Design the sequence.
């Protein structure tokens, strides 16, 4: 473990083709990664401030690459251990934690939410709404755990008390506020992206496990997986490694620094509350540990975190067939068996079991300066697929 941590200090190319399981670092002759050359033009064009990318198979990190800057104003280079707000990439982590309780027989995904959170009993749904009229009715069935994890519950994105940021008030208080207002649509009838739903899942973890949500993540996922930089509250040392967030200026001629607008500052203030739907900070290396566990069928090394059955449920379509959106539990699901999730500031995690490929894209952009920004991640993905095709067998 100590040697693997030291490897993160090496140049990106030197990280290619190291075995990551079992703490071994038996290196093959690495081939230069094509990714920096593909992404550098976007940095030169001042569309991309900087990025950390990682490409892995189920047992090896093929490459960790950096381009551009963690801070444009000081010209601080992006580093392999730069920290990022991963936003909604927190959702699959929360869903994984909840599915661990499913594996233990403590929860069923078909259970109504009100079984664990009585405040949801008697919830109404909006039947008709106009400027001067609101008609409510009883939903066809109470919302289920499956509904909240697949964004089909009818819960909103956020409640009125989650102002001015989303990390205000205890998780229990915020979730109680969700139950106090009517559902926006009948459960199962529509897909409506909902932080409220995932946050409710986090609260169920607390009730069922008897632990705080954040303690459950630390003890059951982050510490065993070695995700040492994944946290809701980055400390001073981690904040020093935090990549600056950028947004286009008004004229869209340049990038200007911004903050994580969904969170309260200072970020290391422990009065801030954990947000299961999007509050985590992490690094490419930490997310690789999580992703490799999933790609290995819920197991990393000799430790199993998630059953193959639960993983299959999470990563296959759970939205009704009449809806256009294909979503599992905490993951967008592709027709080819791939799955993944992005974040509000353009981070992305993708897992392709057929190719045996993990790709992690870490940036901090609240929008792109021009449409060429939309080409950055596809350029990375194409280079990553070429790498895994050319990679020698372990």
Sequence:
């Amino acid at each position: 473990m100590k040697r693997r941590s030291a490897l993160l200090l090496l140049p990106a190319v030197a990280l290619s083709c190291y075995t990551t399981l079992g703490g071994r670092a038996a290196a093959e002759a690495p081939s230069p990664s094509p990714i920096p050359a593909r992404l550098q033009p976007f940095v030169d064009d001042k569309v991309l401030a900087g990025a950390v990318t990682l490409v892995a198979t189920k047992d090896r990190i093929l490459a960790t690459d950096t381009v551009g800057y963690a801070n444009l104003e000081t010209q601080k280079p992006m580093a392999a251990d730069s920290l990022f707000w991963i936003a909604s990439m927190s959702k699959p982590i929360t869903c994984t934690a909840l599915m661990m309780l499913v594996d233990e027989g403590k929860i069923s995904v078909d259970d109504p939410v009100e079984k664990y959170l009585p405040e949801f009993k008697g919830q109404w749904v909006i039947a008709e709404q106009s400027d001067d009229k609101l008609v409510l009715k009883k939903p066809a069935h109470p919302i289920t755990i499956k509904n909240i994890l697949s964004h089909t519950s009818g819960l909103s994105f956020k409640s009125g008390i989650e102002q001015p940021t989303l990390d205000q008030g205890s998780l229990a208080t915020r979730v109680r506020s969700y139950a106090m207002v009517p559902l926006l649509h009948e459960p199962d009838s529509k897909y409506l992206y909902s932080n409220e739903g995932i946050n409710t899942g986090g609260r169920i973890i607390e009730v069922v496990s008897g632990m705080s949500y954040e303690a459950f993540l630390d003890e059951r996922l982050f510490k065993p997986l070695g995700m040492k930089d994944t946290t809701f509250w980055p400390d001073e040392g981690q904040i020093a490694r935090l990549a600056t967030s950028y947004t286009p200026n008004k004229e869209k001629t340049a990038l200007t620094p911004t903050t994580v607008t969904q969170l309260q500052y200072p970020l290391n203030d422990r009065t801030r509350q954990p947000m299961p739907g999007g509050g985590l900070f992490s690094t490419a290396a930490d997310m690789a540990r999580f992703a490799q566990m999933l790609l290995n069928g819920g197991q990393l090394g000799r430790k199993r975190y998630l059953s193959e059955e639960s993983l299959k449920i999470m990563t296959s379509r759970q939205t009704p067939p009449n809806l256009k959106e294909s979503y599992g539990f905490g993951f967008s699901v592709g027709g080819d068996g791939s799955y993944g999730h992005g974040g509000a500031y353009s981070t992305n995690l993708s897992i392709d079991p057929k190719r045996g490929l993990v790709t992690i894209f870490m940036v901090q952009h609240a929008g792109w300066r021009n449409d060429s920004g939309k080409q950055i991640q596809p350029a990375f993905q194409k280079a990553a697929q070429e790498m895994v095709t050319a990679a020698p067998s372990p």
